[in-house]
Design goal:
By secondary structure, the chain is α+β, with helices and mostly antiparallel strands. Helix content is about 60%, strand content about 15%. The longest helix is centred in the last third of the chain and has 42 residues. It is elongated, with a radius of gyration of 29 Å. The N and C termini lie far apart (about 125 Å).
């Protein structure tokens, strides 16, 4: 009887600890703009430390959780269909400031033989490894805004040059007519 109470106490303590971790993971998912799942097999401690430092500088949280706990969180959030993907050595990068910084950092480090994209979650959408790779090659939000402004300005510049061309061309025609009449 006493052993049963001790066992129940240990089980409930372990369960409480897991529930605390599940709540922590769920909070990270809710705050993140994107989450990238990677297979990190073969990375050295120094490579991992360098990667973590770059993540910290870009407001990316990089952690490793048990796959079963992540599965519980994803199901709680209504993201299903990933049970077959949540296997093996998985690490997660929670990108908090923008959607692409985590993927860009991993792609820039070129850990192709040691770290591979498995899949990602962008909002509530699931993207495959190829989608994460494409996300890593996208320009930043600031670059996209600059490109859009450049396109808008080029259109306005074109309209302005066409509008200015009419009086300029008229002046050229009048000058040519004057020269022709003077001759």
């Amino acid at each position: 009887m006493a052993n049963k109470k001790v066992r129940e106490k240990k089980i409930s303590k372990a369960r409480l600890e897991k529930e605390k971790i599940v709540a922590e993971i769920e909070a990270k998912f809710k705050n993140a703009k994107s989450v990238i799942f990677m297979d990190y097999r073969g990375m050295t401690v120094s490579e991992d430390t360098a990667l973590r430092n770059k993540f910290r500088a870009s407001d990316v949280s990089y952690t490793i959780y048990k796959n079963n706990l992540v599965r519980i969180v994803l199901n709680n959030l209504g993201i299903t269909g990933l049970d077959d993907q949540l296997t093996g050595t998985l690490s997660m990068a929670f990108s908090n400031s923008d959607e692409i910084s985590a993927a860009k950092i991993v792609a820039a480090e070129k850990f192709k033989d040691k770290m591979a994209f498995r899949f990602g979650i962008l909002g509530t959408s699931i993207i495959d490894a190829q989608g994460v790779t494409e996300l890593a090659t996208m320009p930043s939000k600031e670059q996209l805004i600059a490109q859009l402004l450049g396109l808008l300005q080029s259109g306005a510049r074109g309209i302005a040059s066409v509008v200015n061309a009419v009086p300029r061309n008229l002046a050229v025609v009048i000058n040519q007519a004057k020269v022709a009449n003077a001759a």
